[in-house]
Amino acid sequence: MSRLIILARHGSVRQVNIKGQFTSIGRDPACEVHIDSLGVSRRHASIHWTGDRFVLTDLASFNGTFVNDDRVESHALKNGDAITMGDCRLRFLYSSQALPSEDALRLVTQVNGLEDLHAARERSEWVSFFRRGKTTSGQGGAFARYR
After folding, report:
1. 41 and 56 in contact (C-beta within 8 Å)?
2. pTM for the predicted model, two decimal places
C-alpha cells in the first residue's frame, strides 16, 4: 500500500492513498491529489507505477518539485521521501502492510514508536520534522517503522 501524508502550510494534515498506475497532483480539483495552494501549479506533478517502483515526475510546474530538498524532474520514490510543492510538504509512504487510517495519521515516528498526534502537535515536533525531513533524534527518516 502506498500513500501520501500531506501537511499544508496552515497546519492541516491528511492522508491520500495512491491508487492505480497514475496519480496526478495539483491545484486543479480534477487531480487525484488536490492541493489548494497558490504555490502549487494546476497540474504540478504525477506519481506513476513503473512495475517495480513509484516515480514522481514534475509536470513543468512553475515553482518546481523537490524530493528531500533537491529539485527534481523525475525521481524514483523511496519509503519516507519528503516531497515539497510550493508551501506544502508531502511524505511518501510505501508499506507492504495496510494500516488503518487513524494509525497512518499519527504521523510522528519516535525511537519508542508512534506518538499520539495531539501530543505531537502540542510539542510541535511534527512540524519541525516535516521542515527538516528527519526525526529529532537523527535516526533516519519518518515512517522508517513502516518499511
Report:
1. no
2. 0.66
